[in-house]
């Protein structure tokens, strides 16, 4: 699955050489070579700060997590300006003594560079080798450049670089990792460097990220993979195997502490020490094990080894906090008499188990009607919380277009969608009408969808207050069908549904940063930018020939009040054209590739002066996860709908090969529950696109690739065990846990 960074992308770009680092007497140094003051008067980077440091880094390891780096830019920046960071070992440049004497950025994972402030700048990120490096370091990435991609405001801005990780060579000399920083303004005639001023409060030296210590042993874990449920009590983690580099390399104690990455601190606590054994060598004696404050597992080494061997920790148990999912890692150190003095690095960021999301009980019934009732009762549970409008939308359970198009109408009315067979009102739906305190019914579809007999049965049903027969009271009236919305085809019915609330009910949104393929994984055409600026009146356009794209978008139509416009896949239907024109639509979110909504469809929409964002993937499940990312993405740079600000870290999932379970699922977005709806390939297969989305939802980078959206903590299935097999659900939970 591709990352969708709003603020950055990882590209291999050649960068200019950075000034040679200058050492200070303390071994900490921050090297800057500013040019003369620029004519444009760009101010200095200042207030340089480094986050809480991790445990010491071990030599000869990769992808070791570093701290956040933050600084302030008091003045404006423009497109083309750059900020450059360079890292090196404690007392020398990279490869000063050998090819393994180095510290470099791990450039294979995401780096998040975010700025805050009015009209804050955005960035892309590139990595290169410093021009001053010897040939032995020709493949090292020790220079990282942030490229400003927009004209920002006047400042000040606070820039934070997070998700940093480092590779450390076997011969890197122990001591502090040194970081140099400079910035250049874009100019046709000159390059001018910012100077760096200030250090964090309380510090007396320019900042560094962490220190390197000589490696005493290697460590492996999570083989086989261990999984503990998010907030689900105690679980057993994987074996941790620590292999000494040489005799007596592990002395005093082993200390295992939750790492700050891949996830955040206090993700879990130790609840049981398990058993530690020594094998493969001679002489070592393992002493008592203990848990210190819940956060540190300490194993005393009474006697160090005479010949190198292997320490294996088995059966240790943990309790997860409930707030984080994805890979959980530890830092391992040794030496001294306990965790307080164990300072020799063994491993940093070693994954020891995965944290899986909670699998909620399925929202389901014995058939499509009962599932729709269960979905409505989840958002509007009688007898305590029935719809305030006392209204409901009624659609056929035999086909998909009417119910999915009506998700917009249901959101407008503040209610849900109930289903029934064509010929007769189902008894379970009749009871649900009474239980939900419904007095007004909006029927979508003509008599071939909802028969005249069914409508008569609705009109003959006595109305109750919320709670129905068991907990409510008779109102003295009957439930009434107050409106029927239909046409000759599904496109006509969708047109009537979209028109009913009126043009004034269509909501607007600024999605100017979501264009140019941001959420399009196909070659399907779309607009490169909006025709006009600001918040635009928005509609959804989906094919009326298949259900998947409209099903995934039903929660969006409900929550954001964007009309659901259905069209012929090959040419824009006249009903769709009429709807877009009558509602004054300025911006359309087209769902699916060209087999769902053709290039001709999009060209016709653009010909009406309407901007088009295509949200599309390789198949319907891919389109659904692209849409979920757009929904959850931050509104920063106007690149997303910002659902993550009120997101409960829950995703809805329905089978992607049949429509019944998702028909009425839009109501689960009621009451501020901004919850995306994803699709599996079928009941037994998750599918690669959804798996990738779930991996992102458990990773440190998060669904947006910036670590801003957060993790998936709950998976909510729609439909029973025949719709989504238990093995499918556990595979989904495992994908989140794996990150």
Low-confidence stretches: 1-43, 198-204
Mean pLDDT: 86
Figure out the total of helices.
13
The percent range for helix content is 10-25%
Rounded to the nearest angstrom, the radius of gyration is 30 Å
Q: Cα distance, first to last residue? A: 12 Å
How does the major sheet shape up?
8 strands, mixed
- Class based on secondary structure composition and strand pairing: alpha/beta
Overall form: globular
Tell me what the structure shows.
- Among the domains are: 10-213, no CATH class; 217-356, Sandwich (Immunoglobulin-like); 504-620.
- The chain contains 13 helices and 44 strands.
- Helix 8 (548-560) runs parallel beside helix 11 and helix 11 runs parallel beside helix 12.
- Helix 10 (599-607) links the parallel strand 40 (587-591) and strand 41 (611-615).
- It is α/β, with parallel strands linked by helices and 739 residues long.
Question: What tags apply to this protein structure?
Answer:
739 residues; alpha/beta; Immunoglobulin-like; eight-stranded mixed beta sheet; six-stranded mixed beta sheet; globular; disordered N terminus
Summarize the structure.
With 739 residues, the protein is of the alpha/beta class. A hairpin with a 6-residue loop joins strand 13 and strand 14.
Q: What topology does this entry show?
A:
Blueprint: E1 10-11, E2 45-50, E3 57-58, E4 61-65, E5 69-73, E6 82-88, E7 103-105, E8 112-116, E9 123-128, E10 143-148, E11 157-162, E12 165-168, E13 175-185, E14 192-193, E15 196-197, E16 208-213, E17 217-221, E18 227-229, E19 234-236, E20 240-244, E21 252-258, E22 268-272, E23 275-279, E24 285-292, E25 296-303, E26 310-314, E27 317-320, E28 326-334, E29 344-356, E30 358-359, H1 368-379, E31 391-396, H2 401-405, H3 407-413, E32 417-420, H4 427-435, E33 440-444, H5 452-459, E34 462-464, H6 468-471, E35 474-478, E36 480-485, H7 490-499, E37 508-509, E38 536-543, H8 548-560, E39 564-567, H9 574-582, E40 587-591, H10 599-607, E41 611-615, H11 620-632, E42 650-655, E43 677-680, H12 688-697, E44 714-717, H13 726-738
Parallel strand pairs: 1-9, 2-15, 3-16, 18-29, 30-44, 31-32, 31-33, 33-36, 38-39, 38-40, 40-41, 42-43, 42-44
Antiparallel strand pairs: 2-5, 4-12, 5-11, 6-10, 6-13, 7-12, 8-11, 9-10, 13-14, 13-16, 17-20, 19-27, 20-26, 21-25, 21-28, 22-27, 23-26, 24-25, 28-29, 34-35, 37-38
Helix pairs in contact: 3-8, 7-9, 8-11, 11-12, 12-13
């Amino acid at each position: 699955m591709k990352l969708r960074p709003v603020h950055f992308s990882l590209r291999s770009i050649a960068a200019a050489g950075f000034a040679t680092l200058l050492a200070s007497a303390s071994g900490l140094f921050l090297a800057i070579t500013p040019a003369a003051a620029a004519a444009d008067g760009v101010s200095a980077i200042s207030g340089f700060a480094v986050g809480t440091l991790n445990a010491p880094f071990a030599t000869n390891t990769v992808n070791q997590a570093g701290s956040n780096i933050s600084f302030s830019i008091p003045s404006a920046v423009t497109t083309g300006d750059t900020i450059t960071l360079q890292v090196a070992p404690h007392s020398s440049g990279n490869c000063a003594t050998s090819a393994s004497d180095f510290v470099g950025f791990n450039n294979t994972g995401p780096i998040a560079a975010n700025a805050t402030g009015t009209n804050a700048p955005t960035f892309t990120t590139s990595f290169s080798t410093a021009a001053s490096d010897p040939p032995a370091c020709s493949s090292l990435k020790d220079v990282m450049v942030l490229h400003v991609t927009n004209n920002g405001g006047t400042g000040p801005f606070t820039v934070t670089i997070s998700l940093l990780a480092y590779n450390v060579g076997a011969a890197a000399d122990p001591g502090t990792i040194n970081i140099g920083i400079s910035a250049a303004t874009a100019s046709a005639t000159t390059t001018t460097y910012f100077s760096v001023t200030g250090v964090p409060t309380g510090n007396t030296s320019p900042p560094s990220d962490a220190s390197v210590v000589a490696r005493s042993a290697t460590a492996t874990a999570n083989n086989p993979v261990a999984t503990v449920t998010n907030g689900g009590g105690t679980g057993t983690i994987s074996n941790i195997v620590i292999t000494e580099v040489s005799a007596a390399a592990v002395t005093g104690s082993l200390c295992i502490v939750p790492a700050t990455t891949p996830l955040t601190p206090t993700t879990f606590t130790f609840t049981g020490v398990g058993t530690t054994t020594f094998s493969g060598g001679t002489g070592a004696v393992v002493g008592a094990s203990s848990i210190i404050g819940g956060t540190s597992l300490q194993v005393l080494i009474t006697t160090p080894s005479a010949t190198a061997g292997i320490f294996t920790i088995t059966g240790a148990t943990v309790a997860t906090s409930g707030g984080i999912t994805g890979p959980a890692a530890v830092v391992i150190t040794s030496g001294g008499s306990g965790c307080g003095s164990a300072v020799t690095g063994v491993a940093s960021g070693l994954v020891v188990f995965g944290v899986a999301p909670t699998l909620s009980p399925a929202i389901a019934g014995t058939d499509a009607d009962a599932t729709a009732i269960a979905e409505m009762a989840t958002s509007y549970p009688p007898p305590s919380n029935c719809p305030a409008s006392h209204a409901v939308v009624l659609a056929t359970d035999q086909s998909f277009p009417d119910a999915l198009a009506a998700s917009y109408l249901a959101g407008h009315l503040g209610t849900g969608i109930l289903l029934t067979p064509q010929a007769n009102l189902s008894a379970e739906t009749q009871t649900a009408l009474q239980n939900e305190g419904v007095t007004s019914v909006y029927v979508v579809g003509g008599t071939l969808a909802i028969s005249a007999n069914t409508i008569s049965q609705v009109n003959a049903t006595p109305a109750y207050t919320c709670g129905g027969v068991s907990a409510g009271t008779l109102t003295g009236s009957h439930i009434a069908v107050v409106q029927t919305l239909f046409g000759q085809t599904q496109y006509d019915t969708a047109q009537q549904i979209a028109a009913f609330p009126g043009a004034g009910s269509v909501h607007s949104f600024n999605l100017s940063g979501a264009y140019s393929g941001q959420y399009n994984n196909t070659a399907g055409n779309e607009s490169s930018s909006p025709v006009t600026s600001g918040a635009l009146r928005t509609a959804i356009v989906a094919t009326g020939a298949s259900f998947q794209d409209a099903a995934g978008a039903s929660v969006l139509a409900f929550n954001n009040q964007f009309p659901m416009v259905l069209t012929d896949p090959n040419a824009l239907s006249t009903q769709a054209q009429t709807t877009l024109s009558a509602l004054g639509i300025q911006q359309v979110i087209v769902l699916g590739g060209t087999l769902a909504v053709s290039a001709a469809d999009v060209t016709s929409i653009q010909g009406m002066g309407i901007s088009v964002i295509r949200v599309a993937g390789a198949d319907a499940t891919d389109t659904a996860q692209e849409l979920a990312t757009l929904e959850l993405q931050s509104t920063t740079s106007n690149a997303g709908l910002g659902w993550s600000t009120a997101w409960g870290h829950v995703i809805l999932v329905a089978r992607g090969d049949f429509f019944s379970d998702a028909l009425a699922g839009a109501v689960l977005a009621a009451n501020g529950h901004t919850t995306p709806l994803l699709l599996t390939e079928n009941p037994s297969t998750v599918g690669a696109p959804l798996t990738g989305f779930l991996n992102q939802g458990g990773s440190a980078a998060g669904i947006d690739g910036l670590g801003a959206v957060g993790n998936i903590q709950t998976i909510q299935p729609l439909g029973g065990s025949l719709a989504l097999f238990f093995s499918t659900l556990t595979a989904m939970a495992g994908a989140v846990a794996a990150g």
